[in-house]
Amino acid sequence: MLLKPEEYIERLSGYRRDIYVLGKKVEDFNHPNIRPTVEAMAFTYKIAEKYSPHSELVGEKVNRLNYVNSTFDDLIARYEYQRELSLRLATCNYRCTGCDAINAIYPATKALDEREGTDYHKRFLEMLKEIQKNDYACTAALTDVKGDRGKRPLEQRDKYLRVVEKRGDGIVVRGGKD
Predict the structure, then answer these.
(1) Which residues on adjacent β-strands are paired with residue 60?
(2) Which of 147, 142, 150 shows the shortest CA–CA distance to 159?
(3) Summary mean pLDDT of the chain
(4) What percent of the residues of the chain are helix, what percent strand, and what percent coil, each to the nearest 5?
(5) By the 8 A CB rule, do 28 and 79 touch?
(6) pLDDT bucket at 141, cuts 50 / 70 / 90
(7) How far is CA 83 from CA 42, 47, 86, 96, in A?
(8) Under CATH, to which class is 5-142 assigned?
(9) Among residues 90, 121, 87, 117, which one has the least CA distance to residue 104?
(10) For the chain, which residues make up each domain, given as ranges?
């Protein structure tokens, strides 16, 4: 199912969220700091039909940003979709990282299952079916090391996270925010 922009916005309105902007609670998605993001994501639905591939997983057309690319033509189609979004929005559409995550998790879980005999790929495919059927807007988090914000980057002691101890109940890590 491919959503229309207004259906995406209506869906958002149905979510119960506590939203804060600059430390103050806001009641809805119409705040001037939030609305541009909502509109940018809604636009991904506006032009989705033009770029939507058929998914064997759900047996219908799905949003390109929720699709696992498997051919050169898939990659070109994704590029064209992203290019049009960038040219027409002149801002981030907030969904690229979700598409990238889907396309990274697919082969990673498959390889892990083949190597370890786990069922991560099967579980991922069930989640992906849900994403595709409902045309969910997925995203992923990107972070970088901040360390001690009172120091300049060159003054930082250690910017890399590493495992320093393995225990029966887990691991101990150091770095990044020491």
Answers:
(1) 55
(2) 147
(3) 90
(4) 50, 10, 40
(5) no
(6) confident
(7) 16, 12, 5, 11
(8) mainly alpha
(9) 121
(10) 5-142, 145-178
Helix, strand, or coil (residue 176) = coil
Q: How much of the chain exceeds pLDDT 90, in percent? A: 70
As separate numbers, helices (DSSP H) first and strands (DSSP E) second, the chain gives 6, 6
Q: Which amino acid is at 106?
A: Y
Of 9-18, 72-81, 121-130, the poorest mean pLDDT is in: 9-18
> Element (H or E) spanning 107, and its range?
helix 96-116
d(CA 41, CA 80): 17
Max alpha carbon distance in the chain (Å)?
55
Q: Tell me how far apart the alpha carbons of residues 146 and 51 are, in angstroms, rounded to a whole number.
A: 38
Residue 146: pLDDT band with limits 50, 70, 90: low
The predicted model scores a pTM of 0.77
